[in-house]
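Hi there,

I know you've been waiting on this one. I reran it after we fixed the sequence typo, so this is the corrected version. Both the input and the resulting structure follow.
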Amino acid sequence: MRIGIIGGSFNPIHIAHLIIADRFCDQMELDRCIFVPAAQSPFKINDASLASAEHRGAMVQLATEQHPKFEVSDVEIRRGGVSFTIDTVRAIQQQYPEASVSLLIGSDQAIEFVRWKEWESICREAQLCIVRRPFLLTPEMEERITDMLTIDGATPVWITAPLLEISSTEIRQRVATGRSINYLTVKAVRDYIFAAGLYT
């Protein structure tokens, strides 16, 4: 079995997350793609705009239920506290001991990846995949990142996805100012945000 992991705050999850995950499934020939909402990102500890883990987890569940390969793990939410990717990779591997595991990160995260806890262990224990965002990195920068994150001969795989200028920050700002978020996320998530009074 081939399993992919996509972690993040998902505050809220949006269309670009889903399209990237779909391309991840295609290019890595995944059997399952597991979304893992963070309880608390180590890089967003003082983020006042962060919806509760329960709300974010519920929105990810709603957004992913139509795709046959997408599923959601609450492993980081149940663990609580600051979420570290190495712990999540190991938890998923324990759950699926026979599976090969791939981890997807963004190219912006790849630039800072050496700051992540036990980043070299992550590269050894999972296939690191980096979503290629058009125009963000030059080919030379991609090559430097590939060299930097190649551990024990294991080289990152670059995943190609469409460039969509959609961000969770924009969605939160639009909700806060009473503007439409149509087509930025799925309808079930839009309905959830308004029903729960999030980001106002």
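Quick highlight: Residues 15-28 form the longest helix (14 residues).

Best,
R. S.
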